[in-house]
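Question (not urgent): is this output format expected?
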Amino acid sequence: MTKDTEGGKRRHKRLWLAGAAVTAIVAVVVVPPLVSVSRYKARITQLISASLGRPVRLSSVEVRLLPGRDLC
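Got this back:
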């Protein structure tokens, strides 16, 4: 292989990795607001009630992508 061919493959690989990184970042930013975890509230409540053997009530359900403190 020549140096030009090897350089082209490296450049192609770097572009592919950069594209994959940008796609992952966009997915992390765009997808969470589109997914409603509230629709799973009844199922989560049912599973917790079954495992504890007593009634359980949940006021809300939320998912956090990264751990952190509440700002409120």
